[in-house]
Amino acid sequence: MLPPLGIVRNGLRRTTEALAAELAQPDGAAPAWSELEWQLATAMAVAHGVSPLLCQCSTWQHAPWRRFLESQRDHVELRHRRIAALLQRIDTDARAASLALVPLKGSALHAMGVYAPGERPMADIDLLVREDDAAATIRLLLELGYVESFVQWKHRVFKPATGQPFDGLGEHRDSPVNIELHTRIQERLPISPVDITARIYPRSARPGLNPYPSIGALMSHLLLHAAGNLCGRSLRMLHLHDISLLARRMLASDWDALWGEHAADAPWWALPPLRLVERYYLDAIPDAVIARVERECPLLLRTMSRRQTLTRASCSELWLHAFAGIEWSRSAGDVARYLRNRVRPSDEAVRERADMVRTQLWLQGQDWVTSKHVRRVLTWLTRPVPRMDTLYVVRAALQAEARPQTSSRDAATRWRTIFQATRR
Fold first, then answer.
1. At the top level of its lineage, which domain of life is listed (predicted)?
2. What is the mean pLDDT of the chain?
3. Sheet harboring 146-151: ordered strands across?
């Protein structure tokens, strides 16, 4: 049984902002939270991918909280060993097949020593390959015991032929390691794609696993990935932490990679994620970089980015927004196409939704996600609709601490008591 969603919404906002502040600048003073707020904090630490990082940097003393963080760090470290061994196998097989691959994001950050094993969770392995080598790379993955799960416009997803996802709260050492295969590095913001593949794929790639061409190229990818998630209100605390750590390693000249080789490559999309990093991680981003990117950003997006918070940009904001991301449109044509797609989704969008319902645990068994589109639109316009991904992790956190044999009346009384505590 969930407490009233209004209570959950307020608790998610408070705990998310507190976790973000603690991760960026630990102060050691544990918040005076209610039982519900500690459970919601656990849910948000998982949703934002920062449980093992908080285990390392935060000294908040709350016994169930500490036990969970320590358990998550152990699981992430054990899972990292499996991922590292799999990457080594892919490297060996790719060399033998004369295939050049680029491990992306989390894999690259670990390879650079930005993170130690156990600090940063990795849901999957992302690989970039040239379009001409995609078929051969798919054969390599099939020989490794993988099968194709589904295809999206950004990537193809492969999962192990055996093994089941962990149906519980947080990371688990035995969860299957999926592989996402990319031939382009791009994001739709919200309609027109921004493509930075030319900056990411090395010009002199060799067979096997290759690093990014430069630290600036990696930063470009992290920022574009964060921008895509911001546009869809799916940003994670981990995205901001990645950017902040990498930024502190960069020289002034390294930032030039964001601009590419042509005027059309100006990184207008980088301002909102940079502003959010600046909000939580003081002095991580040079003022000169913010000022330079700001000149490239459209006025509406530039203005809205000044008021953005992590809660509003992520699953921590409980309610769905019918027109999330429309402010990223750069033309009247983009706005018109965005609205048309919201009213009448493309065949591609319908297929992707069906694939998500089929493959994602948090969507399965939910009537809302399988309802007809017109019903969902009408619901958006008439009442608040909670996000299914947020409810999934909140339920998992509450169930982890649930008391057996609790009647509905006892539960209602308990939530009223918790609510009074959260208002004080």
1. Bacteria
2. 89
3. 146-151, 156-160, 178-182, 124-129, 100-103, 208-209
Q: Where are the domains of the chain?
A: 1-47+388-424
Angstrom distance (rounded) from CA 286 to CA 309: 20
Mean pLDDT of the region 149-174: 88
Q: Which amino acid type is present at position 379?
A: T
Residues 6+ apart with CB under 8 A from 20: 237, 240, 280, 310
**Banded model confidence at residue 409, pLDDT cuts 50, 70, 90:** very low
Cβ pair 233, 240 in contact under 8 A: no
Q: What angle do CA 386, 388, 390 make, to 5 degrees?
A: 80
Tokens (6 digits) for 118: 């156990």
Alpha-carbon distance values, 161 to 127, 175, 344, 415 (Å) = 19, 13, 35, 43
Residue whose C-alpha is closest to residue 225's, from 128, 341, 298, 333: 128
Q: Distance between CA atoms of 305 and 282, rounded to whole angstroms?
A: 17
Q: What number of H helices and E strands is found in the chain?
A: 18, 8
Instruction: List the end-to-end C-alpha distance of the chain, in Å, as a whole number.
Output: 23
22: left (phi over 0), alpha (psi -120 to 50) or beta: alpha
For residue 148, is pLDDT > 60? yes
Query: In percent, how much of the chain has pLDDT > 90?
Result: 74
Residue 85: CB atoms within 10 A of its CB come to: 11
CB 252 within 8 A of CB 235: no
Instruction: Supply the angle between the helices 237-247 and 271-280 in degrees, to the nearest 10.
Output: 90
Rounded Cα gap, residues 106 and 90, in angstroms? 16
Binned at pLDDT 50, 70 and 90, residue 413 comes out as very low
372: tokens are: 């007809």
pLDDT for 367: 65
Report the pLDDT value the prediction gives residue 381, as an integer from 0 to 100.
75
Q: Give the C-alpha separation, 263 to 267, whole Å.
A: 10
Alpha-carbon span 147 to 215, nearest angstrom: 33
Are the beta carbons of 422 and 10 closer than 8 angstroms?
yes
Nearest to 145 by CA among 182, 180, 178: 178
